[in-house]
Amino acid sequence: MKKKNKYPKPSDYDKEIYIYAQTNNGCPIFGDTSHPLSGKRGHVRYARHVMSLKLGFWIPKGTQIKYRDGDWGNCSFDNLETPTVFLTKSKLSKFLKRGDSPSQIAQQFNVTTFAVAKRMEKFKISHLNQHKNIDLLPHLNDIVKMVNDGETLISIANKYNVSDATIHRFLQKHNLKTKQSYTTTPPTKESLINDVYNGMFLSEMSLKYNTKSLDHHFKKLGLKKYSIIRSEAIVKSIKKNIDNIDIVMTTFGISMTTIEKNARENNIKLPKLYGLALAAKPLIDKETLIKLVTEENLNLTEIGNKIKSSISKVNRMFQHYGISIVKLRREAFKSKIKNLRLKGLNLEEIANQLNIPIRKVKYYEKS
Predict the structure, then answer these.
(1) What ranges do the domains of the chain cover?
(2) Are 119 and 60 a contacting pair, CB within 8 Å?
(3) Disulfide engineering: 360 pairs with which of 67, 199, 205, 356, CB 3.0-4.6 Å?
């Protein structure tokens, strides 16, 4: 049975939100089974809630959310974007009919090709059915001239609103020799391996060699797939920099969780001091962190705003120092409530003074 939506618009949601970070990745979430975006266990990703407030409607399930700075803990309006929400069925059909490939559409909307493929699957759109044949024969001489002048197939394709593969097939059909679509030196076996070991992503390598896909180059040169070579490079880098894991994280742009996973799969023992809690270096000392909780009554979000950091990084600082923020807050509030009780204040007065709900005062007193 479909869950009834109590909140037609995001602005109608008036419940108090208590944010905490997921232990596996530090992603900010909160719990509410009545929330339109809640999962089976009642968990809601805070970023999806914020994005819905920004757009003015509840975003559909499966909508891809992108973080501009790459930090999952930064859920500010300016840092979040949902390009696939605006990739409607009509727009998708329009781009496919004019000859754009899914990868070209992905570049225009700044999303992954996989995200475009999922939208096509959702709308039941076939790339082959939407593509229409474009007569390029009248432009044959112009295309040949552009190729001989050194223009890439991609730039030619953009002029005729077709894919570079369409131009390539057109020239092959008319027995015309094409120049290579990259303007730099063609990739060699050694250069590709060096690029992967230097931490370059496949998209960066494609830009370097000015080609849309390097998969056929890997196959042609007898190399393993990019993903396999990258995994091997990460493992070798972990073994080489076992005492300085930060180098691996910076080189390959990966998190401590990914490093731990690779180390576990390859039976590599990391130093005990390394762990998820040390993925980010502490921004403040232990005493200052404790004071922010006990004296200023700040939660994770408020501490992050004060020191200009994300919720996940603040959570990792607590893990680094071995502090439980839940226990710390509980003990601090218990002590303050006890002192205020001795002064003769009632529940409502204590709640107002500590700026917390009355039910929280009761909870801390019983705990």
Answers:
(1) 10-83, 87-130, 137-173, 189-278, 286-366
(2) no
(3) 356
Contacts 24+ apart (CB under 8 A), 36-42: 36/5, 36/7, 37/61
Place of tokens 């923020």: 325
**What is the pTM assigned to this prediction?**
0.35
The DSSP annotation for 157-211 comes to HHHTTS-HHHHHHHHHHTT-----S-SSPPP-HHHHHHHHHTT--HHHHHHHTT-
Q: CA torsion angle for 50, 51, 54, 55 (degrees, to 10)? A: -150
- Angstrom CA distances, 240 to 154, 262, 266, 299, stand at 40, 14, 14, 39
**DSSP-assigned letters across all residues of 36-78:** TT--TTSEEEHHHHHHHHHHTSPPPTT---EETTS-TT---GG
Q: Which residues make beta-bridge pairs with 325?
A: none
Q: Which DSSP symbol is given to 149?
A: T
Residues of the chain with pLDDT below 70 are 1-5, 23-25, 62, 83-86, 99, 110-111, 126-134, 163, 177-185, 212-213, 272-282, 310, 312
pLDDT digits (tens, 9 = 90+) for 234-249: 999 888 888 777 788 7
